[in-house]
Amino acid sequence: MNYKLKIIGILLIVVAAVLMLAGFFTEIMWFDSEGYLNVFWTILYSKWAVRLVSGAVFFAFLYINLLFAGRSLSRVWSLKYREGIVNDAISRALSGKWMKLFFFAFSAVIAFVFTAFTSSYWLTAQKFLHAENFGIVDPVFKLDIGYYIFRLPFMQAVYELAVSAVSITLFFVALLYILTYVEEGPTRWLYILARERQVAVLLAVFFALKAYGYRLSMFNLLYSPRGVAFGASYTDVHAVLPGLKILMIISIALAVMLLINLAVNRPRMLLWTLGILVAASVLLQGIYPAFIQQFQVTPNEFVKEEPYLKSNIEFTLKAYGLDRVERKEFPVKETVSPDVIMNSPTIKTLRLWDYRPLQQTYNQLQRIRYYYDFNQVDVDRYTINGELRQVMLAARELNQARLEERAKTWVNRRLQYTHGYGLVMSPVNTVTAEGLPNFFIKDIPPISTDPALKVDEPRIYFGELTKDYVVVNSKTPEFDYPSGEANVYNEYKGKGGIPLNIWSRLLFAIRFWDYKLLVSSNFDSNSKIMFDRDIKTMVAKIAPFLRFDKDPYMVVAKGRLYWMMDGYTTTDRYPYSEPIDDINYIRNSVKVIIDAYNGTVDFYIADNTDPIIKSYSAIFPGMFKPLDKMPKELRDHIRYPEDMFLIQARIYTLYHMEDTRVFYNKEDAWQIPDEIYGSERSKMEPYYTILQLPGEKKPEQVLMLPFTPSTIENMRAWMAARSDGENYGKLVVYLFPKDKTVYGPMQIDARINQDSQISQQLTLWDQRGSRVIRGNLLVIPIDSSILYVRPIFIQGEQSQLPELARVVVAYGEHVVMERSFEAALSRIFGEPTVEKSAPTIPTEEMTADELIKRAADTYDEAIKAQRAGDWATYGQKINQLGDLLKKLTGKP
After folding, report:
1. pLDDT tens for residues 279-310?
2. Which H, E and C letters describe 112-159, residue by residue?
3. DSSP string, 321-364
């Protein structure tokens, strides 16, 4: 039985080793195919260097101490052998040769286990070696911020490892001494340990390290959550900090006294000093700070905390890039000329389509085949016929999960259905008579309405839905796209993929646990395997030290398809900066371009003032390119990233209050407003739109979001992030007058619901086999006025095809709903329309024939209103028809 278990154990070890080696070598192939093999080796070398150095130091420290402690054990037990107390076998086992061998092996095992997690410190070590300065000093210790981000984490890690190493060594050394004098009994063990010089030295080292730990804790006060705001507070600086200094001195004194005690041999003095350290820790880290907080700070909190509150505001704004926000007043006027509004470039490019219903519409109209999918809809802008147009677009990716079950064969999934095809693109502000989007790019192969949007290479081998590995250029032709009753096939001619030979086929068969890769006869010398081709996985593998925006978007440039992603440098170690989620510093320092056909990945530095990206550039030389090296056709599509903007907006809801007293009282706290989407209330999302900002000469793409006060629904301000040209990255906040009421999104929704005609029509739609979807409420600043626009989509229960049926526009005190945005504007700014009541039918003067004719006309008018979706008029006509029929039948 034991023999079989050994065989099974050996087999498991061999299998695990083979799997690890297959994974290792295939990863090398992947990084080499992407051109980032140097990054792979740098990360690998860094991990092993940290582990080997820490492991070697720990091994040597433990082994030497065990040898030293083992001499006493060997000496005592040899004496017992001579006295006949122990037998010869025990004596030989404790002899110098075997004991050294045992200690060596034991130390190696413990060091291996101890350093299993230390490789995770590779980036901390590299950032320490490639530290940068921020040019900003903290207000307490007057050190550059770079010290806290690049150096302090490394010193903290070294301290923690050193304390762990000394503690583990002290434990095993103490255990050896107890084994040496095991017959003395537990009551004597503490006394024996106290008189041992080696134990005293190790304790001295431990307390010296503890003193260093107190020193590091002083710097960590800059991350204290104790006060009214994040960072060192009055209590931290005036109570905790002095206490840490005292504790550091006591720890040093205790370490020195431990060494002195080797000569004077007074254990009680050590116990007194240790007791003082414990008592001082309780007093100085617990009781005294609580006393100061309760009796000095709380009664005069603002006065005591004001300078620290000021530091928190200043450093939070800097950490999130909000210190450069340009603040402007926005004087709201309702006397703006209608011509100014009607002819504004903002109006001409206003976004009506909401990405959520539009995604369903794309999938219904342009999926073409069931195995294609539009995973998400993105917003971008293109210059078409010399005019800046905002568009929505989505990549048509192949989703293997949508294949029919009988079609999910190995050949289909791995060799034939390998790539998506093309994209759809439509302007954000136009709609067909049927309420559907007008397409700039559509169909398979892609048909473009403008030469600037021509797509020469529409195939998508690398995307968001490309989760599985595939083999291209096999003997099985790749499905390209459907054409009528037949299919068109394709051969891959790009740079992506890893060539397959017998060696690589074996490795990949092991990695994917797929024997067909090894035995299939479908491969030849031209075959290449593609794996880990999901673009989010790709960039995370190459640059695991960056964070990436959740929303990559597709760009059409030079006849090809590219993915563009935003990369962030972040940290949670920026002093005094308020944390949000798990960070307290962020910069959009990197733009990533991925070729959808070749899979090539390029990283560009978008913010060369960021010290963290400078450090990464030094760690990985040649990995990052200057932004001006990005082709202009792609650079024109850079946009301000939504994830970072939302983080900044959340922080700014409080930190726009730079006056410390106002901040302390939260007198002007804001919030991101709620809105209604569909029928659900949720937080408003930032939205891209093309605006001509106040004071600017031309329209540009911005990412914007309004703010409301935290306690009421009125609108207080709006923030815009600019994306075009030299203005890229600039943040502007427009403040509304505090003495004027500017409706917030929920108040506009309430006014829509209170309009009897609009609410009646929406209710009728919802009750007649269709669903009403309220799209994004857009808050649009034009000149010195605010226009609110909400598209209304109707989705039939059977078709599941959302149609843009109505547009609600609110301006001032007016709220209207029309079939088009232009009609709604005309109704608001044109001649006022008076709703006419149903005409009185002079039935007393009509003959039966005249009544029948009037009934037929009324029926035709009702049907016409029904087809137009005008349910209010439809209901009105049906009521009139009912009155006519009653007259004809003689019923009252």
Report:
1. 888 998 889 999 999 999 999 999 999 999 99
2. HHHCCCHHHHHHHHHHHHCCCCCCCECCCCCCEHHHHHHHHHHHHHHH
3. T-TT-EEEE----S---HHHHHT-HHHHT-----HHHHHHHHHH
Q: Which residue is listed with tokens 């030469």?
A: 451
According to DSSP, residue 576 is labeled: T
DSSP readout, 583-640? BSEEEEEEEEEEETTT--EEEEES-TT-HHHHHHHHHSTTSEEEGGGS-HHHHTT---
Tokens found for residue 302: 């603002």
With beta carbons less than 8 A apart as the criterion, state whether 618 and 598 touch. no
The region of weakest confidence among 11-15, 124-128, 227-231, 556-560 is: 11-15
Distance CA 70, CA 103 (A): 9
What is the mean predicted confidence (pLDDT) over 663-668? 92
- Are 797 and 789 in contact, with CB atoms under 8 Å apart? no
What's the rounded Cα separation, in Å, for the pair 662 and 392? 42
Mapped onto helix, strand or coil, the DSSP state of residue 719 is strand
Task: Please give the Cα distance from 118 to 606 (Å, whole number).
Answer: 32
Sign of the alpha-carbon dihedral angle for 258, 264, 269, 273: negative
Low-confidence winner among 196-210, 604-618, 654-668, 822-836 (lowest mean pLDDT): 822-836
195-219 average pLDDT score: 91
Helix (H), strand (E) at residue 436: none
Average pLDDT over the chain, rounded to whole? 87
C-alpha to C-alpha distance for 614 and 149, rounded to whole angstroms: 13
CA 86 from chain centre, in angstroms, equals 66
3-state SS record for 195-254: HCHHHHHHHHHHHHHHHHHHHHHHHHHHHCCCCCCCCCCHHHHHHHHHHHHHHHHHHHHH
Beta bridge partners of 670: 709
The predicted model scores a pTM of: 0.88
Q: Are 437 and 358 spatial neighbours (Cβ–Cβ below 8 Å)? A: yes
